[in-house]
């Protein structure tokens, strides 16, 4: 009998285990290592939010919630988006509560893609979009933005539309994981103009919207609401990654279809975590301010140190990542570099090639870590550069 594995979904053969998690597991076994690998806030969930979750359990709110989320959470989320970003969505018909932004990405792409469709994905980018596109028998069109400040221009977008006839969606993540770069409202308006009125969805992942450092958060929803599927949540804004609450918003007719895939994928998210997220959106509207202030300090320190060591960096405008080009004279293969750095300097970064074309030769630093660890790690990186400069590229 043939192996049952060989009869599984053939698209699985196109996927590899996550480079990020594989390396993180390796690095975790090195004694004394300082890790900047995972995209997770190092702050604790605010006390008032934890209390709301505990109260929910104590009051026996431990049964199924409505599939699209509790009315209270959808109302709180809609109010939050309106107050913060002037994004207006009907909580009853245009807001879906998801199992983190991850499930929202899965649901959005699975709902809209047919075999043979194409998805324009500017890279470097969080690799989940690519994997889910492939699983849906669609083709990711990867657009290297490294020569344009890690932003996709309207000209780059138009070029891809001219070259490909079956584009169903464009993915945008801003502020970006892994670069920390974001778009201005003018940038987004110009991108919107390229696809407005076409049979193309815009999937806008704004999970880092609350972590914009130098300018107000901009959004494609302001110029292309009718074609946009908006993703957000509380993971990064309120340090709630483990609570697994995301938000997906779209015009009513689109949201009705999205809710079908959502319902048959997870049924619903947990009731007590929805209570906590309701508190976050309703009464923690500015909870991210203190975190953002600390992230900005870390960004400035890291940027100064890494550039002084010869790394070329795009200065992050949001999120909590620094994307740095490995200096000449050091190992240029980013995957080999991060293993060498981990073993010799006991500092763990992520190789840029894990994020697609344009990431080769870069490393991503997640500065969701204490300032003490950042200072120590930078001392180690400085010593590593000094001791290893001149190594042949390999």
TrEMBL record:
The cofactor(s) it depends on are: pyridoxal 5'-phosphate
Q: Pfam families per the record? A: Aminotran_1_2
* Main enzyme class: transferase
Q: Does the keyword Transferase apply?
A: yes
The Aminotransferase class I/classII large domain covers: 33-377
Q: What GO biological process term is on the record, naming one?
A: amino acid metabolic process
Alphabetized, the UniProt keywords read: Aminotransferase, Pyridoxal phosphate, Transferase
Question: Cross-referenced SUPFAM superfamilies, in alphabetical order?
Answer: PLP-dependent transferases
Superkingdom to which the source organism belongs: Bacteria
Gene Ontology molecular-function annotations: pyridoxal phosphate binding; transaminase activity
Q: What is its EC number?
A: 2.6.1.-
Q: Which family does it belong to?
A: Belongs to the class-I pyridoxal-phosphate-dependent aminotransferase family.
Which PANTHER family does the annotation name? AMINOTRANSFERASE, ASPARTATE AMINOTRANSFERASE
Q: What is this protein called?
A: Aminotransferase
Task: Give the organism, scientific name.
Answer: Liquorilactobacillus satsumensis DSM 16230 = JCM 12392
The lineage, from the top, is:
Bacteria, Bacillati, Bacillota, Bacilli, Lactobacillales
């Amino acid at each position: 009998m043939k192996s049952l594995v060989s009869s599984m979904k053939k698209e699985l053969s196109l996927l590899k285990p996550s480079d990020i998690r594989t390396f993180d597991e390796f690095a975790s076994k090195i004694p004394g290592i300082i890790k900047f690998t995972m995209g997770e806030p190092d702050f604790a969930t605010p006390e008032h939010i934890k209390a709301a979750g505990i109260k929910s359990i104590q009051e026996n709110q431990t049964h199924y919630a409505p599939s699209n989320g509790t009315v209270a959470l959808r109302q709180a989320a809609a109010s939050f988006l309106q107050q913060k970003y002037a994004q207006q969505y009907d909580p009853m018909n245009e807001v879906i509560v998801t199992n983190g932004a991850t499930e929202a990405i899965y649901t959005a792409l699975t709902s809209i893609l047919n075999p043979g469709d194409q998805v324009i994905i500017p890279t470097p980018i969080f690799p989940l979009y690519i994997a889910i596109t492939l699983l849906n028998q669609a083709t990711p069109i990867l657009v290297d933005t490294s020569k344009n400040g890690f932003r996709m221009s309207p000209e780059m977008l138009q070029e891809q539309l001219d070259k490909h006839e079956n584009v169903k969606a464009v993915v945008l993540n801003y502020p970006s994981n892994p670069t920390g770069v974001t778009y201005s409202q003018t940038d987004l308006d110009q991108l919107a103009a390229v696809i407005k009125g076409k049979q193309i969805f815009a999937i806008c992942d704004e999970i880092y919207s609350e972590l914009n450092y130098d300018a107000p958060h901009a959004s494609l929803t302001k110029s292309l609401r009718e074609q946009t599927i908006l993703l957000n949540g509380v993971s990064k804004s309120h340090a709630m990654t483990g609570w697994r609450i995301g938000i997906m918003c779209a015009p009513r007719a689109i949201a009705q279809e999205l809710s079908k895939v959502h319902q048959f994928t997870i049924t619903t998210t947990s009731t007590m975590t929805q209570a906590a997220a309701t508190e976050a959106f309703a009464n923690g509207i500015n909870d991210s301010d203190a975190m953002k202030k600390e992230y900005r300090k870390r960004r400035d320190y890291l940027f100064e140190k890494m550039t002084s060591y010869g790394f070329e960096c795009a200065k992050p405008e949001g999120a909590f990542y620094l994307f740095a080009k490995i200096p000449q004279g050091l190992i240029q293969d980013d995957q080999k570099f991060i293993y060498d750095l981990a073993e010799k300097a006991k500092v763990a970064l992520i190789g840029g090639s894990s994020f697609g074309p344009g990431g080769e030769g870069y490393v991503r630093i997640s500065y969701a870590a204490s300032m003490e660890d950042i200072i120590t790690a930078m001392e180690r990186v400085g010593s590593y550069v000094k001791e290893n400069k001149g190594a042949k590229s390999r």
